[in-house]
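Quick start: read one record
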Amino acid sequence: MHDMNQYLMKAYKYNGKEHYEQPLELFEIGSDFISLKGAIGRQLTHHTRNRIFTFDKKTIEYFFFERWYTAAFVFNDEGICDYVYCNVCLPSELKGNTVSFIDLDVDVIYEKGEIKVVDLDEFEENSKIYQYPEALIQQVKKTTEQLKTDIACKKHPFDLYII
């Protein structure tokens, strides 16, 4: 029997190629997002790197239908959020039990009170490879700045798990 709480998260590159995917469970559905939880021991199939990763931490992951990012809260054994990993991406889509998004390379990480922006080099490289339109490039830069503000101001969902 198909479990309605089981979801598949799929990330794609801009050219439509599968990037990575993992099984997650329903946590909450809001008006502009779905949040899914990841269990310890789940496997992420990384198509781009041709590897399978096994997670040793629980996560609660937010996928927004209007915002240009995702947010994964990673918890330690005591249930405290160790860090938040955000993908800058096109707004997520929900079809049946599959949540998908197009990854736009830039990641924003919040850990120990510090916000770091990573993979800008990958973004520069891929913007040439995939010929990102100028409007998309500007939106990624705007979203990166907005994300830093949302984290600092603890806008939902950053108000929930960040101490």
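Residues 134-152 form the longest helix (19 residues).
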